[in-house]
Write a structure and sequence with these properties.
The protein has 115 residues and is mainly beta. Helices cover 0% and strands 54% of the residues. It has no helices and eleven strands. Strand 5 and strand 6 form a beta hairpin. The relative contact order is 0.33.
Amino acid sequence: VQFVESGGGLVQSGGSLRLSCAASGSTFSNYRMSWYRQIPGKEREWVAAISNTGDITNYADSVKGRFTISRDNYKKTVYLQMNSLKPDDTAVYYCKGNWLSYTIWGQGTQVTVSS
């Protein structure tokens, strides 16, 4: 399985973006999926997670109420809907999949929020 993120870009403060993470392979529905973000020089920060069936979601306090994680196992894609964006949300966003002993990261997509 490989993951490829898309949907990043430049947006004004208060705006919205939807990130996508598309998977190859046939085992996507087994993976618990997460979104992380990273600013240069800082550690990668966990943002949100969703269970393999999509019925359980969790969020970092910094994004709770503004971001929504979802998935479509038929399309083999996980999404991160980001609303009310702030300049502090500027980062490279990565998706990550976990299943058994497998941990797979995507390559990242840049999100820049201008003030």
